[in-house]
Amino acid sequence: MKVSKYLAKHLRHQPERIGLVLDPHGWTGIDTLLAATAAHGFPISRAELDHVVAANDKKRFAVEDGRIRASQGHTVAVDLDLPPAEPPAYLYHGTVGDRLPAIRTEGLRPMARHDVHLSPDRETATRVGARRGRPVVLSVDTGAMHRAGHVFRVSANGVWLTPAVPPEFIRFPG
């Protein structure tokens, strides 16, 4: 778990802290990453890295051609170069109750991230919401959003991304 969190922090939020430079699409060389982690007192072996990438339940990382990147969730400027995709009729967003008043008036906003993250199923959204307290799962009428011209992309790990979700497309529980 510590390795996964360390990688997420530096591949999504603070690459410069360990001397990493991400390319415009968020990629960095695996050898470069391993050298940087070792140089900053957190050595990771290639076997450990491969295990974290393969075993991470959220599939947070993608590996391709000797490079690695976080699948989504960046606060640093990257273009994940994901093509637009037609979403299913509904996707889900996990949150907590104290955020509902703002969501009812403003919709879902990306906050510090580049996009709003939507889950393909209620179970995943419940786990996401539970990270901050008692979860509330919102249904998003992504079919109607798509028909209205909103753009969606899907990351390598199945998380759906869109710049914002206006409140009229959100179905609140109860």
TrEMBL record:
<keyword id="KW-0520">NAD</keyword>
<protein>
    <recommendedName>
        <fullName>Probable RNA 2'-phosphotransferase</fullName>
        <ecNumber>2.7.1.-</ecNumber>
    </recommendedName>
</protein>
<dbReference type="InterPro" id="IPR022928">
    <property type="entry name" value="RNA_2'-PTrans_KptA"/>
</dbReference>
<dbReference type="InterPro" id="IPR042080">
    <property type="entry name" value="RNA_2'-PTrans_N"/>
</dbReference>
<keyword id="KW-0808">Transferase</keyword>
<dbReference type="GO" id="GO:0006388">
    <property type="term" value="P:tRNA splicing, via endonucleolytic cleavage and ligation"/>
</dbReference>
<comment type="similarity">
    <text>Belongs to the KptA/TPT1 family.</text>
</comment>
<dbReference type="InterPro" id="IPR042081">
    <property type="entry name" value="RNA_2'-PTrans_C"/>
</dbReference>
<dbReference type="Pfam" id="PF01885">
    <property type="entry name" value="PTS_2-RNA"/>
</dbReference>
<dbReference type="InterPro" id="IPR002745">
    <property type="entry name" value="Ptrans_KptA/Tpt1"/>
</dbReference>
<comment type="function">
    <text>Removes the 2'-phosphate from RNA via an intermediate in which the phosphate is ADP-ribosylated by NAD followed by a presumed transesterification to release the RNA and generate ADP-ribose 1''-2''-cyclic phosphate (APPR&gt;P). May function as an ADP-ribosylase.</text>
</comment>
<dbReference type="GO" id="GO:0003950">
    <property type="term" value="F:NAD+ poly-ADP-ribosyltransferase activity"/>
</dbReference>
<dbReference type="GO" id="GO:0000215">
    <property type="term" value="F:tRNA 2'-phosphotransferase activity"/>
</dbReference>
